[in-house]
Amino acid sequence: MQISRTIIVLDAADLEPVSSFWSQLLGGSVKPDDDWHTIFVDGEPRMGVQLAPDHVPPQWPDGTPQQIHLDLYIKDLAAAHEETMALGAKLLQEADDPSAVEGFQVYADPAGHPFCLCWG
Questions:
Q1: What angle do CA 77, 107, 117 make, to 5 degrees?
Q2: Single pTM value for the model
Q3: pLDDT digits (tens, 9 = 90+) for 6-59
Q4: Which residues share a beta bridge with 30?
Q5: What is 25-89 written as a DSSP string?
Q6: Checking phi first, is residue 99 left (phi over 0); if not, alpha (psi -120 to 50) or beta?
Q7: Other beta carbons within 10 Å of 69
């Protein structure tokens, strides 16, 4: 099997805030269609956001199970945290020790999809 492209697709009841959030966080741009937004990074499609009017955010960590999550590896947690929060993320779980050699913090995008800022 030859796979020519792989992208992550997130469901959302409101496409604009979710695609805007991810495009800004990843340093990309959005190509909107009626019920689908494609997020391009460095000219390549990297993510899709699909209209799902009945989308219910997962309740992390206990409750409705998460459908998927992304791990984004960063160099500076404090700077990445500030930028992520300014874009509209919600902090779900702080790192046990932000000064540790490796670790993660858990966030949610505007539609409630969990993702981690990781280091190490």
A1: 35
A2: 0.78
A3: 789 999 999 999 999 999 999 999 999 999 999 999 999 999 999 999 998 888
A4: 39
A5: HHT-EEEE-SSEEEEEETTEEEEEEEE-TT-----SSSSSPPS--EEEE-S-HHHHHHHHHHTT-
A6: alpha
A7: 15
Which position has the token pair 């019920």? 35
Q: For the chain, which domains are there? A: 1-54 (3.10.180.10), 56-120 (3.10.180.10)
- Say how far apart CA 111 and CA 119 lie, in whole Å: 24
Amino acid letter for position 88: G
Closest to 51 measured CA to CA, from 22, 3, 9, 99: 9
Amino acid at 10: L
